[in-house]
Specification:
Layout: E1 5-6, E2 16-22, E3 25-32, E4 40-49, H1 52-60, E5 62-63, E6 66-67, E7 72-73, E8 77-85, E9 97-100, E10 103-104, H2 110-113, E11 124-125, E12 138-142, E13 146-148, H3 155-159, H4 161-174, E14 181-185, H5 189-200, E15 205-210, H6 213-221, E16 226-229, H7 238-242, H8 252-263, E17 267-272, H9 277-286, E18 287-295, H10 307-312, E19 316-319, H11 327-336, E20 345-349, H12 353-365, E21 371-375
Parallel strand pairs: 14-15, 14-17, 15-16, 17-18, 18-19, 20-21
Antiparallel strand pairs: 1-3, 2-3, 2-7, 4-8, 4-12, 4-21, 5-6, 8-9, 9-13, 10-11
């Protein structure tokens, strides 16, 4: 993974990929695969989803400190069919349907040795520059990061294991269980998988808040106990929050009252899946004393928050970054029917230049689009 490059030879013309070549510019061009190592497999991609980070890269050629400096193959939510296996691969055979975990860690650093490989500083992750992604006809990937799909789990559902893993990892970090009342801030794709994961982990009551009526209706359909529409103004004055005063036509304190009323009990865990000053301020105020706030979204790089009052109530703030060891559990949730991700897939496209452009435009517009999926 991440090796390969632009192909100029006739022998590789059959393997095409969606290359990010400039701002708002994607081109389907040949993609030369690396040699198959003894522990690698070659996979024919069949389902690839578009993530918010993919759209950010397309719009700005960067996400946070990750900057696209040269053409890069996009995509990281994926599943496909094994076409070739390396000489040392024993657990997979050609024809197996697999979901791919997109990050390769070093397994030498302290984080990896502690089992927290998602924090590896040398992580090589699909479509995180300079590593190439998986929106291609074929990719080469380590066999131990390819997970065989149960017979009743589709390739599209396999690709959904990647976003679902974020929700599963968040629930593990927050120790969500049958006695945990959960608030989710944000009903985008990650907020919705957090909702599904929390329910699968046993959360008895889940409230979700968002600015969009359509996404809230989807959340209700997916099993949210209560939905709350909040102000679209994401800016918030901390003075106003601390003193329960309106700021820029926004009264966070009033929304906190709505949340607590909707929950009907204390909010034990809040997942902020938006990551703005306002959503985190609301989360910190709405969560009960001794509860936890998990920052999942990355909307704002820097925030000004009412941490002193949260600290006085011993509200723990927990960071979430990607996931670790989640694919087996995600696949079991899908196999058993505890989680159904199919309603999240709202749009499907093929793999042509025109359809790739239309798919990314659809995802970027938002509206009623939740997960946009390529069928290759």
């Amino acid at each position: 993974m991440g090796k390969g490059g632009m192909s100029h030879g006739d022998d590789q013309q059959e393997n095409m990929a969606a290359w990010l070549v400039g701002i708002n510019t994607l081109k389907i061009q040949p993609f030369k695969l690396p040699e198959l190592g003894p522990h690698d497999v070659r996979i024919r991609m069949k389902a690839v989803g578009i993530c918010g980070s993919d759209v950010h890269y397309l719009k700005a050629m960067r996400v946070a400190d990750f900057i696209v400096k040269e053409p890069m193959v996009i995509g990281h939510e994926c599943a496909g069919i094994i076409e070739e296996i390396g000489s040392e691969v024993k657990h997979l055979v050609p024809g197996d349907r697999v979901a791919l975990e997109p990050g390769i860690s070093c397994w030498r650093c302290e984080s990896c040795k502690e089992g927290r490989y998602n924090l590896c500083p040398d992580m090589k992750f699909f479509a995180t520059p300079p590593v190439h992604g998986s929106l291609a006809n074929q990719v080469v990937h380590p066999a131990d990061l390819c997970f065989k799909l149960p017979e009743n789990v589709s390739l599209e559902e396999g690709a959904m294991c990647e976003p679902l893993s974020v929700g599963v990892h968040a629930c593990r970090r927050a120790n969500v269980g049958p006695e945990t009342n959960v608030l989710v801030m944000g009903a985008g794709p990650i907020g919705l998988v957090a909702l599904l994961a929390a329910r699968a982990f046993g959360a008895p009551r889940i409230v979700i808040a968002d600015v969009d009526d359509h996404r809230l209706s989807v959340a209700k359909t997916l099993g949210a106990d209560e939905i709350i529409k909040v102000s679209t103004n994401i800016q918030v004055s901390i003075f106003a929050v601390l003193n329960s005063l309106p700021s820029s036509r926004l009264d966070v304190a009033e929304e906190v009252v709505q949340i607590r009323k909707a929950m009907g009990a204390g909010v034990d865990v809040t997942f902020d899946c938006a990551g703005f000053d306002k959503t985190m301020s609301t989360a910190l105020r709405a969560t009960r004393p001794g509860g936890k706030v998990c920052l999942v979204g990355m909307g704002h790089d820097a925030m000004t928050l009412p941490l002193t009052s949260a600290s006085a109530r011993e509200v723990d703030v927990i960071g979430i970054f990607r996931y670790k060891n989640t694919w087996p559990l995600c696949l079991e949730f899908l196999r058993s029917g505890k989680i159904d991700v199919k309603p999240l897939i709202t749009h499907r496209f093929g793999f042509s230049q025109k359809e790739v452009e239309e798919a990314f435009a659809t995802s970027a517009r938002g509206g009623n689009a939740i997960k946009v999926m390529f069928n290759l």
